[in-house]
Each structure stands twice: as C-alpha cells, then as structure tokens.
Amino acid sequence: xxxxxxxxxxxxxNSSSISTMKLSVASLALxxxxxxxxxxxxxxxxxxxxxNILAGTxxxxxxxxxxxAARPEENEAIDALVKSNFPGAISNKAMETKVAxxxxxxxxxxxxxxxxxxxxxxxxxRNLEDDLNKVYGxxxxxxxxxxxxxxxxxxxxxxxxxxxxxxxxLLVHGPHVGISxxxxxxxxxxxxIALVDNCCGSAIAASNYLKGxxxxxxxxxxxxxxxxxxxxxxxxxxxxxxGKRLNDADNRMKELPYALYDSQDIxxxxxxxxxxxxxxxxxxxxxxxxxxTGPDTLDYFHPLRFDYYxxxxxxxxxxxxxxxx
Length: 325
What we know:
By secondary structure, this protein is α/β, with parallel strands linked by helices. It is 41% helix and 18% strand. The protein has 13 helices and twelve strands.
C-alpha cells in the first residue's frame, strides 16, 4: 500500500502499529459499498424541457404591481434624505416596476426567467430579493458577505444550466448600506431592535481593517486566512486597493459601498465572461448599491449598471438610462 508520493505504508507505520491495525469484515463491506456509490453511470438521456420557473399566467409587470400594492407609499422626508446623499437612487418600488417592464419587452417572463442574485447575507438585503422572488420565483444565490460573488465560476456554471431552455437570466448584484432616519450613513433601524445598528456590518469591519493598515495601527496576526471566517478575510483583501480613496473621502461610510461595488463589478463581469457559453436566450445584469432604510419606509437602489447580454455572451445594450427616465 502506498500513501501520498508513492511512500510505502510500511515505512510510515512501525511493526507494532501494523499488528494492531485491524479492519472488520463489516468495515470492508462498508468501504466496498461506498466505492460502488461513486461508480460512473451512463445517463439514459432526457428530453428537452420547458421549465416554468414560476407557474401562472400573470406577467411580470402584473406581479410587480401586486407586490407593490402591499408596500408603503414613498415617505417624502426619507425620499429627500436618501436622494440628497445618494444622487441617482430610486425607490425599490419604482425600480422594480421599471425593470419588469423593460425586460418584459425583451421577452423575459416569470415562466422563462431564472433570477440570480449576489447580495449580502444580511436579512435587510433580502428585501429586494424577496420582491423579485414574488415576480420571477426562487433565486439562485451567488453571493455572500458584502454581496461578493463567492459562488464564483462554479456557481455561475451551475446556475446557467438551470435557466429554462430558450430562457433568460436576470442577475442582480451589489453591496448595501444603511441610512438612519436622522441621516447617519452606515446605520439603520431594524425591526424589534432598539439599537440603531451598523449596515453593512461586514463592509464596516473591512473598512476598519483597512483603516488600521493605512493609519499604521494594524496588529500582526498569524490568522491571515481562517476557514471559519474566510469570506470576511476575502472582503478585507478585496477592499485593499481602495485605501487612499476611502481615506480621502469626505464621508467614508458614503464612499464605502461604491468602493466595494467597483471590486464586485470587475469580479461579476469576469465570471459572466468566463461562463458566457452557458447563456441561453439572454442575460440582464442589474447592479448597484442597495440602500436600506427603517422597517416602515421603502428601501432604495442606486443602479450603476443595467446591461443586456445576447445569446453569444456579448453586451449589446445598456438599459441604465431607461431606469432613470
């Protein structure tokens, strides 16, 4: 028996350990059964299918209208507060309505569209995702902390295989940031919690890590990479190029989500380019900054990219201007 680089097992084990090493008949049987479970099986083949992602006859615009009927009206004070701090932002209510209409004109329907997202793990990032789930059905999740696409090329490849035949993908991604009702960026009121909490916690932790480096106060550690927190470690590495930018910003918390977005934008488009052979009828990429407000007011989104990829994986149209019109 050999281990590793053709190293004989008897050189690794002394005679006493060999004499005490025993495998029962039951153990051998279990090993044999386990091995047979991985025996290659030739698939019998399957017919092409037309998969309904979300059953029913309602159009996407009709579904959005139903979802928005349960949402509060825009709060004028919050609306002015958000838009003064994040020029270009629009309410999720307005954005979702426009996105559904624009994509419907291109053939996207609830029955032929797979929703794919790369948003933060924070429950506040689910607000937008949950709305879109009610329109297009369950999403394929690429994202992790701060919204980075941690599922990577493998995740995108698996997702592409799940898109209905001759169907489309709507991919939504971006970091998020909170704004409290008194205008503090990086903080937000949460339902059932008295404390006005950090938002996004992962982004702020990464920003603090970076500030420790640029200010010279970082401590030496042997725990550079830990599996138990590798996503946060990656976020901290991916924010490193933006150290000077954040230090020079008038409002670090306002600039932070845009710095994160710039890193994510490169990664997501690289992943799409690497897997563009899996695009079927087309792919819409909607990305920007999620802006979370308190539990009784609408959330907002600052769209920074709304591209349409054709079946060959080429960007053939930017639809971003249609969102702001």
